[in-house]
Design brief:
four-stranded parallel beta sheet, about 45% helix, globular
Length: about 170
């Protein structure tokens, strides 16, 4: 079984990525383990790339959003954005592609970047399955595919209104 950074922190085990984070962010071991365990500090990893700490006590990070749309599909333009992001010191990239061969575009971003990459799997799911016929299985299948391809993190759009309705004190408008 694969252990996550949060699993290791909760077990009091320091990972290589945590050690790198302690050095880069000048955070002591106890503080780092505590913050990762509680979820207030996240360590983004990507094989062959330096780990990035985001959250409480970490330095500010720069994320670059890129991606195709239904009206502008130019994979070369997205790769130019990757080059510019790396040249000017971005810490992470988020691929928001919604047009063209989304998987191939994401693979190309991976091949041309050394930064941790975030994706929004629901975008590809909706584009390829359609909103009307979308199933939970589709959502989970695309989420798993993104994770299996090695993304460092994913964005999940959740409907918290329905989840929190019974316990919410003030209305959401």
């Amino acid at each position: 079984m694969r252990h996550t950074q949060i699993d290791c922190a909760r077990d009091g085990k320091l990972t290589l990525e945590m050690q790198q984070t302690m050095e880069r962010e000048n955070i002591d071991e106890d503080t780092l383990l505590s913050r990762v365990a509680e979820g207030s500090l996240v360590i983004m990893t990507r094989e062959g790339c330096p780990s990035i700490a985001i959250g409480r006590g970490a330095s500010t990070k720069v994320n670059v959003n890129l991606g195709t749309s239904a009206v502008r599909i130019d994979p070369d333009a997205e790769l130019e954005k990757v080059r510019i992001a790396e040249k000017y010191g971005a810490d992470t990239i988020t691929d928001l592609s919604m047009g063209g061969d989304i998987r191939a575009i994401r693979a190309s971003v991976f091949e041309n970047s050394r930064l941790p990459i975030t994706t929004v799997p629901i975008y590809q799911t909706v584009v390829e399955c359609g909103m009307k016929d979308l199933t939970e299985g589709d959502i989970l299948s695309y989420l798993k595919a993104h994770v299996d391809e090695g993304v460092s993190s994913v964005v999940l759009h959740l409907s918290l209104i329905h989840i929190s309705e019974p316990t919410r004190r003030t209305p959401i408008s």
